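Q: I'm building a small set of examples for a reading group on sequence design. Run inverse folding on the following structure and report the sequence directly after it, with nothing in between.
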């Protein structure tokens, strides 16, 4: 059974409440329960943190034993050299995902420290971005 981690960065714990016109009204917990049922032949796990170091620690923890990491680093995507370095240091492939189309938003969101070290990037498909990333590992 494949093991895939969904790893969410800062403020994504507010999905369903935060800017629903951009991020939708579904909580991530509800979404995660639905994809666990849909992809029941995959061992899906989920971790979210607003703290950069905790995200790096989780990448190190699973980066040699999991089959894939679906990473929405949120705002850290555009600021964290350390997250990019953590991904470079592991064997597990990472797919960078974003719920919104970051290229249609503020200019600072057009740069990613993750993209160059990720297996691929999926942006702008809402929560479906996560499913597309999971499918890429199957």
């Amino acid at each position: 059974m494949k093991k895939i981690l969904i790893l969410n960065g800062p403020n994504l714990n507010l999905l369903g409440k935060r800017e629903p016109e951009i991020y939708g009204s579904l909580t991530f917990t509800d979404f995660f329960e639905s994809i666990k049922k849909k992809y029941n032949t995959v061992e899906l796990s989920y971790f979210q943190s607003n703290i950069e170091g905790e995200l790096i620690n989780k990448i190190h923890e699973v980066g040699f034993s999991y089959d894939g990491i679906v990473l929405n680093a949120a705002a850290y995507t555009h600021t964290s050299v350390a997250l990019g370095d953590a991904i470079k240091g592991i064997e597990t492939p990472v797919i960078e995902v974003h719920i919104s189309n970051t290229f249609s938003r503020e200019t600072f969101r057009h740069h990613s420290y993750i993209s160059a070290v990720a297996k691929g990037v999926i942006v702008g498909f809402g929560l479906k971005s996560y499913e597309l990333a999971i499918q890429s590992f199957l």
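Helices lie at 20-23, 28-38, 52-62, 81-88, 128-137.
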